[in-house]
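Hi support team,

I've been running sequence recovery on a batch of backbones for a student project. Most finish fine, but this one hangs at about 90% for roughly twenty minutes before it completes. I'm not sure whether the input is malformed or the queue is just slow. I've pasted the structure tokens below so you can try to reproduce it. Let me know if you need the job ID as well.

Thanks,
M.K.
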């Protein structure tokens, strides 16, 4: 199959965006898909969440965006996760938006870098920062589609219209092929009537673009980043692990049906 590039984006923080990036990437790798996770958030939580430490002198996605090195040189194998590589973030990424202001074709830097990968993976997942700045614009310009984690709590649907407006701008100006891969409901508490209400409203608005699988509110999911492990390696029998494995299978059925394991 050809490479499928997905940006995981939502300008609202605390919705499970990085949790989704880490555990979906690991889930895809466990399904046998060659996967690259690009940590485009200066906080570098996706990198540390997979056990990649943060030395101050480490090179990463910042150096790729500024044309100092290629992804093939900088991507690291994720500890304990075969088939998964990570292009890590570093502190330098905080200054990238300022340094790219006058750069030629600055919105296309990430897209061009991905296009130069010698052996393209099956999936590229991009963990975006919780904002709609130049880093996120780079991610959306590079992507085939955007995956939106949506928290099943009050005000969850607020901001989706702003994100939708941004997607339309990107489609018109930079990436006409960009589509919505889907909306992933996160932090779902079946005991909470509000969670069901948000789920119903999301499915009513987005229809079949909402993933069938729902990510439950799960303590083990919250604990796993502090151990530098995906949920699949921290507690593979937890509800969170089982849910993200099912989301990975949904994506595989869409884009690599011949490789899905029973």
């Amino acid at each position: 199959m050809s490479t499928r590039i997905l940006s995981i984006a939502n300008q609202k923080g605390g919705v499970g965006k990085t949790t989704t990036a880490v555990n979906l990437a690991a889930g895809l790798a466990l399904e046998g898909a060659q996967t690259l996770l690009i940590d485009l958030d200066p906080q570098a939580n996706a990198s540390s969440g997979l056990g990649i430490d943060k030395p101050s002198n480490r090179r990463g996605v910042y150096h790729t965006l500024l044309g100092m090195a290629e992804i093939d040189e900088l991507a690291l194998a994720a500890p304990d996760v075969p088939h998964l590589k990570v292009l890590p973030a570093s502190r330098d990424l905080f200054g990238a938006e300022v340094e790219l202001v006058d750069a030629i074709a600055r919105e296309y830097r990430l897209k061009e870098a991905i296009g130069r990968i010698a052996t393209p993976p099956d999936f590229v997942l991009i963990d975006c920062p919780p904002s709609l700045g130049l880093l996120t614009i780079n991610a959306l310009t590079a992507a085939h589609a955007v995956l939106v984690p949506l928290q099943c709590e009050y005000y969850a649907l607020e901001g989706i219209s702003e994100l939708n407006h941004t997607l339309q701008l990107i489609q018109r100006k930079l990436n006409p092929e960009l589509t919505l891969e889907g909306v992933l409901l996160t932090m779902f508490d079946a005991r909470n009537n509000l969670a069901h209400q948000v789920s119903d409203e999301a499915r009513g608005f987005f229809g079949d673009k909402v993933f069938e699988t729902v990510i439950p509110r799960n303590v083990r999911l919250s604990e796993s980043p502090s151990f530098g492990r995906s949920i699949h390696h921290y507690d593979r029998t937890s509800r969170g692990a089982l849910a993200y494995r099912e989301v990975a299978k949904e994506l595989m059925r869409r884009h690599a049906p011949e490789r899905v394991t029973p």
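--
Follow-up from support: It reproduced on our side and the slowdown came from queue contention, not your input. The mean pLDDT is 91. No action needed from you.
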